[in-house]
Amino acid sequence: MQLKHLITGISVLALAVTSLAQQQPQDKSKRPSPPGIAEATLKGKKVTIEYSRPFMKGRKVVGGELVPYGKVWRTGANEATTLTTEIDLNIGGATIPAGKYTLYTLPSETGWKLIINKQTGQWGTIYDEKQDLVRVDMKTSQLSDPVEQFTILLEPHGDALAQLSLQWETTQVSVPVRAW
Prior knowledge:
Layout: H1 2-23, E1 35-42, E2 45-52, E3 81-85, E4 89-91, E5 94-96, E6 99-106, E7 112-117, E8 132-156, E9 161-179
């Protein structure tokens, strides 16, 4: 009798998982916050940031409900934003070994911090401070024209240097990235 209940339970679970999978858009580009990629080649090795790109849609973003000051922000939408590097990096003065990480930010009125976290594969809102590898200061500046859709740029400046920038609304925050 217990075997029959176990088989019934497994069947119900399989149906639930299938139903949930069918509700999620298989094509991520059709999401309200579609995926984006920022990448650069430094010293012949790839550095890639994968993230989702929400839109302003007339909302107050920075310092508002979407990107509040004083709270860790998921730095995008949907799945957690990931940094994958084939080479050791120095980001804002901190050493980052080659590997895969999650990026979060901590915005404030006086400056932003980039958080590089060792936990990967989670949904963007799942943050464990104990998994932080480093927190680095970012330079904040105002853009003259608003950016409607959240954008991450990784712009190379020579063979071993790039500028990592986050842009949304009229805010830009950036930090230098150097390959070792």
